Amino acid sequence: MNMLTAVYDTKPYDQAHLLAAAPRDILQWQFWDFRLSAETARTASGARAVCVFVNDAVDRPCLRTLGELGVKLLALRCTGHNNVDLHAAQEAGITVTRVPAYSPYAVAEHAVALLLTLNRKIHRAFTRVRDQNFSLNGLVGTDLHGKTAGIFGTGKIGRITAQILRGFGMRILAFDAYPASEWARQTGVEYVDARTLARESDVISLHIPLTPETRHIIRGETLALMKPGVILINVSRGGLIDTTALIAALKADKLGGVALDVYEEEEGIFFEDLSGQVLQDDTLARLLTFPKVLATAHQAFLTQEALNDIARTTVANLEALAEGRPFVDGSVLTEGAPLFTSSALAEGP
Ligand code: NAD
User: Fold this and answer.
1) Annotation marks residue 286 as catalytic
2) 20 to 30 Å CA-CA from 325: which of 17, 151, 184, 260?
3) Is 298 a catalytic residue?
4) Which tens digits make up the pLDDT trace of 196-244?
5) Is it the case that residue 340 has pLDDT exceeding 90?
6) 8 A C-beta contact, residue 226 and residue 252
7) Measured between alpha carbons, how far is 325 from 100 in angstroms, rounded to an integer?
């Protein structure tokens, strides 16, 4: 009998890529458009595996229900796993897998796209020209060439972002708990401490995972260290930035711009079409009023290549469960697993 997988928070592109990656007839699918949580977990009845994304709330009560229903595998179709209680999963007898790596170019290129758009005010120019307003007033940007970029986290995505910005002729400073010294030497990147990075950078891009240690790593105190006019980019996880402190810095007109693909309270908002509705999140509503803020709704991963990679790894793990084979190398998460991958640690001190 085919193995049933309940897929949560399914968008049309998820369904299309998962089905395309599973031409063999050994999996059966139940696609739900709502998110998995303690409240919705009973909908996994009959499934041996569930498949979730970044904003499903896979906490202890949810995992207890999944365990009672006989679910054996929780397959994350993302890299970060800050939304899963790994200890509770282990207690419930559920293996957790993730996609350890997928096109890091997708995310790095989106970070740079946001930077270029914000700096050269392309988003404002686009609407102006469509309105036949061909004036240039208020559209002055700065050259990136010769400026300093600070890359916070030099794992897979941070390194590619650094390399792209290096190509623009920027000086690159980097901070990482486990510096990749050989890569830095070859790329012309300088590792510095976090405070120096904050103080000296004209552009700061965040590429570290969200952990209890990194939550609100950008807060009032960090923002106070930064140069006036700094451009801050976050395509990693919303919780890295204290949004209240960010709004205070924006109100004080201290920042040159903020590009966000993630927001700490994005669950239930990002990925949804809420057009025509009243936005209930006052903090996000305020953030979106600043002309210097450019936001996208967690779309940095959204390229054909990344979706193919994600679907291939996810399907390989589901088929491995169905056929009793080992899971994809490096994809099984155990309690205490770091929220970052060991490849980034290879050159650690
Ligand atoms: P990675 O594991 O390859 O790299 C993470 C780096 O952060 C590592 O080098 C690690 O040493 C460093 N790090 C971890 N904790 C640190 C700390 N406390 N201080 C300093 N450095 C620390 O991860 P990656 O593939 O480059 O992804 C980075 C993050 O990007 C992910 O954790 C995820 O949150 C985010 N992401 C976002 C999207 C999106 O669509 N917006 C898509 C994929 C990944």
Assistant:
1) no
2) 17
3) yes
4) 999 999 999 999 999 999 999 999 999 999 999 999 999 999 999 999 9
5) no
6) no
7) 18
Is 305 assigned a catalytic role? Answer: no
Question: Which of 70, 30, 75, 29 is closest to 56 using CA atoms?
Answer: 75
**Rounded to an integer, what distance in angstroms lies between the CA atom of residue 287 and that of residue 331?**
36
Rounded to an integer, what distance in angstroms lies between the CA atom of residue 3 and that of residue 48?
7
pLDDT, tens only, 267-289: 899 999 999 999 999 999 999 99
The residue from 81, 266, 267, 312 that is catalytic is: 266
Report how far apart the first and last C-alpha atoms of the chain are (Å, whole number). 50
Residue of 48, 237, 264, 312 marked active site: 237
> What are the CA-CA distances from residue 184 to residues 140, 153, 169, 175, 188 (Å)?
33, 12, 15, 11, 6
Residues framing ligand 1 (Cβ under 6 A): 79-80, 104, 107, 153-158, 176-178, 207-210, 213-214, 235-237, 261-262, 298, 300-301, 340-341, 344
